[in-house]
Design goal:
Strand content: 15-25%
Distance between the termini: 44 Å
Strand order of the largest sheet: 2-1-3-5-4
CATH class of the largest domain: Alpha Beta
Shape: globular
Largest sheet: 5 strands, mixed
């Protein structure tokens, strides 16, 4: 009974903290501080060389994207996102379970948040959101795992390539996962990874509908033809759609 009581207290505390964090992160009264933690995902020397070459300016287009979109939705905040770069982390985050049950997901989420707390090496302003960016050499043969974002804990894990040519795409994925931490949902078909019309399209009312020229950030890809959908090379080719804007409190939803 004591163990059950302790577990219930922990879950109550986590739930309360999650609710308060969610409220603070989407009231848009102040800038959200986002820290990027680079990780050498494959332990290769060329990956390490790339990580050590990174500076905060490599991630500035994340700030620019949010600034552009917040202005488009007329949210009165000059700098919605402030991105900072931490030192290299030597520990890798726990891998999510394969075909998880609800309990598996809960346990992994708690484990992930504990790992994040234990391995935090950021020496600065307490971040609102933590993005762990695991880099892999494009010269390797390893297929990248799916990136993810946790609203419970305001944590994102991005798997990207360690090459400046891919950094724009890495930042696109980081912005996608960042929005997950704020409550935005995926707007693509999980079987095909193609964006779902209308919410997953940047221009859902365009005539003709295809080709689309930009990606809705949570749709994840640009649908250029009925059989081709591409991840954009950078955030310059992305927008926040109306459905996503409602989810993150940039836009009022329909009244019932």
């Amino acid at each position: 009974m004591l163990r059950i009581a302790v577990l219930l207290l922990i879950l109550l505390f986590v739930s309360l903290n999650t609710f308060l964090s969610k409220t603070r992160s989407t009231d848009w009264n102040n800038s959200l501080w986002v820290v990027i933690y680079p990780i050498n995902g494959d332990q290769r020397a060329d990956t390490q060389d790339y990580i050590e070459s990174l500076i905060t300016e490599h991630f500035v287009d994340i700030e620019t994207f949010f600034q552009k979109e917040v202005e488009r939705y007329r949210v009165p905040l000059d700098e919605p996102i402030k991105v900072m770069l931490s030192n290299v982390l030597t520990s890798n985050p726990p891998e999510p379970p394969e075909n998880p049950s609800l309990l598996d997901n809960v346990l992994w989420s708690l484990t992930m948040r504990y790992w994040s707390w234990k391995n935090d090496n950021w020496d600065g302003v307490e971040p609102d959101i933590r993005i762990y960016m695991r880099f892999f050499s494009p010269k390797g043969q390893q297929a990248l795992r799916h990136s993810l974002g946790l609203q419970k804990g305001l944590i994102g894990v991005v798997n990207g390539y360690a090459d400046v040519e891919y950094q724009g795409q890495n930042n696109f994925i980081a912005a996608h996962e960042l929005l997950h931490t704020l409550g935005a949902t995926d707007k693509y078909d999980p079987k095909t990874s193609w964006p779902l019309w209308p919410d997953g399209y940047a221009e859902p009312t365009k005539v003709p509908l295809l080709p689309q020229t930009k990606a809705e950030i949570m749709g994840g890809r640009v649908q250029v033809s009925p059989s081709i959908a591409l991840i954009p090379p950078s955030l310059e080719h992305a927008v926040v759609g109306a459905a996503t804007a409602i989810e993150i409190n940039w836009l009022s939803g329909p009244e019932h």
